[in-house]
Specification:
Order of helices and strands: EEHHEHEHE
Structural class: alpha/beta
Helix content: 25-40%
Strand content: 15-25%
CATH topology: Barnase, Chain D
Number of strands: 5
Strand order of the largest sheet: 2-3-4-1-5
Number of domains: 1
Number of helices: 4
Radius of gyration: 15 Å
Largest sheet: 5 strands, parallel
CATH architecture: 2-Layer Sandwich
Length: 169
């Protein structure tokens, strides 16, 4: 059940990945994410985080798991130029990816109508076509870290391997 997609710039996701109903779309710019504070600022602005946001990773995870201040049936979080995020800090980039994966996992367990397998939180990481495989591998590695730290049960990867070259959503 994928909730994280890595696509090339100008790539798109099939419309059937979206649920019907109200959709909130937040666009974040990885080029602006030069350090941790800039990452938090992008999320604060893009998701209109509440004033009580604590400007740390746990607070971001908590806010991504709630989103009650943004009433919608589903949420699409687009990180443009994801390959440019935190270029000089790979450890913090992994923290960012793990936070997004944990939030997606949390939303994937939210009760949905029978027969609906789609997550209510969809994360799209757009990047330079030459970086797609590398970013996808980084996300997969972070997923493995996330799963192994959470529990030792076998959980399939949520990262979509489908890549489209059509216009962006």
């Amino acid at each position: 059940m994928p909730w994280v997609h890595v696509v090339p710039e100008q790539g798109a996701l099939p419309v059937d990945l979206l649920l019907t109903g109200r959709t909130y779309v937040a666009r974040l710019d990885g080029r602006q994410m030069c350090d941790t504070d800039a990452v938090f600022q992008q999320f604060y602005d893009g998701l209109r985080l509440p004033d009580y946001f604590g400007w740390n990773w746990n607070a971001l995870h908590d806010c991504l798991g709630d989103l009650a201040w943004l009433p919608a049936d589903q949420y699409v979080l687009i990180v443009e130029a994801a390959d440019a995020a935190l270029p000089d800090d790979p450890a913090t980039r992994r923290q960012l990816f793990r936070t997004l994966l944990r939030a997606g996992r949390r939303w994937s367990s939210v009760k949905r109508p029978e027969g609906i397998d789609l997550s209510r939180l969809l994360v799209v990481m757009s990047c330079d076509a030459a970086s797609v495989a590398d970013v996808r591998e980084q996300v997969r590695s972070c997923w493995e870290e996330t799963v192994s730290s959470a529990d030792s049960s076998a959980v399939s990867s949520p990262v979509s391997s489908a890549v489209s070259s059509t216009a962006s959503p």
